[in-house]
UniProtKB/TrEMBL annotation:
GO molecular function terms noted in the UniProt entry: methionyl-tRNA formyltransferase activity; methyltransferase activity
Record-listed (6S)-5,6,7,8-tetrahydrofolate binding positions: S111, L112, L113, P114
Annotated PROSITE patterns: GART
Annotated organism of origin: Desulfotignum phosphitoxidans DSM 13687
Coiled coil: none
NAD in keyword set: no
Signal peptide stretch: none
Protein name: Methionyl-tRNA formyltransferase
Listed GO biological process terms: methylation
Enzyme class: transferase
The gene coding this protein: rsmB
Keywords per UniProt: Methyltransferase, Protein biosynthesis, Transferase
Catalytic activity line of the entry: L-methionyl-tRNA(fMet) + (6R)-10-formyltetrahydrofolate = N-formyl-L-methionyl-tRNA(fMet) + (6S)-5,6,7,8-tetrahydrofolate + H(+)
Domain Formyl transferase C-terminal stretches: 206-302
GO cellular component: a single term: cytosol
Amino acid sequence: MTRIVFMGTPDFAVPPLKALAARPDFEICRVITQPDRPKGRGRKPSPPPVKTAALDLGLTVSQPEKLNTDAMVEELTALAPDYLVVAAYGQILSQRILDIPKKYPVNIHASLLPRYRGAAPIQAAIRNRDNKSGVTTMVMAKELDAGDILLFKETPIHPEDTARDLHDQLTKLGADLILDTIDQINAGRLTPTPQDAENATYAPMLKKEDGQIDWTQSHLDVVAHIHAMTPWPGAFTRLAGRRIKVFTAAPGQDEAPDRPGTVCAVDEQGIHVVAGTGVVIIRELMGKSGKRLSADAFLRGHSLAVSDRFE
């Protein structure tokens, strides 16, 4: 029986947890996740998705405010795990924690390492208009996302994909990959490979203000930015001083007929907005009600004319 301590917090970590729990030859002896946090308008404490999934599976859950304490080291050591499996947990693990498993501390990372180490690899891949992404399993090291690579799987990125779309593809890949990784290690068929540090790139954590659309960029870059920021932190622009979220868009013509940010046409395709080069066609955006609307539905309830300008 392979003993596993699983550490994860958001939606991304749920399919890998469920995949591991479904294996009769694996025992998840503890799930570690972040504490419940205030959420929504009422700011009521809300459990992280991993906690909800773990309890549904009948697993034991711990939610330490701080992981790297003497008490947690003792508690995890007593569990005698073969592996720590970590997926978007949200705290940095000390070397004392990393040294606990008999075999490896394994991280599931949502990029093809060494590209996009850091907290926002999915958004970075969309924003940079990459044509593929993937998931990597690695042996965790003290330096962020710099550990030796175990396995990886690739998936294509399509031009219309948002960060949510890619997230959903990668979490499924991650579930398959962690099973394959542990099976190959247990069978003695897998040797960790050092990363090529010279080719490492970084995708730092995003802030809300990073979602602002810069209409002076090329139309292709603006569309990529909108899709990269959906659903979080959310791409936004301003119209007559009012902040408006934009969810999906498509590239239009290659020529820019007016100043960046200017509405140059409104038709069944959407709202055409001039960028630094070319035109962006807004397909979905947020209305006054806060609901996500098609461009057509937005125009039925909002005043918008050719020559109006987004800022």
